[in-house]
Amino acid sequence: MSGLDVISGTSAIIGIIDVSITYYNDTRKDSKLSESFEVVIKRLPIIRDTLQKCETDLKRIQDDIPTDVWDALEEIINDCDDKARKVREIFEKVITGEHDGWKKRYSKAIRRLGEGNKVEGLLLSITQDVQLIVNHHAVQSATPEENAKLEEIIEEMKSIKPSVPEEEPGGIAFNNAGTGSQTNNVLGGVVIKRTTTLHSEFNISIPPFIVITQKQDFSYREPAGLCLGGSPYIDSRLFIGRSSELDKMHKILKPRDASREQQRLVLSGMGGLGKTQLAIAYAKKHEHEYESVFCLNASSETSLKDSFRSIAGLIFDIQEAGTLDCEDIPYQVLRWLSNAKNTQWLLIFDNYDDPRQFKIRNYYPPASRGAIIVTARGPAVLGGEEFALGLLSTIAESLEIFEIGLKERPQNLEYEKRWNVNGKRQIKLPEYQDRTLYTTWDVSYSRLEDEDSDAKQLLKMFAYFDNQKRLRDVIADHNNFAGAMRTLTDYHFVEVQEGTASWSIHNCIHDWTLMILNHDIDVQQYWYAFDCIAATTHGHNLDSLEHLPFVRIAAHAKCLVQPQLWENELIPEIMHNRLDRAFYICWRQSD
Question: The NB-ARC domain covers which part of the protein (predicted)?
Answer without folding.
Answer: 249-381
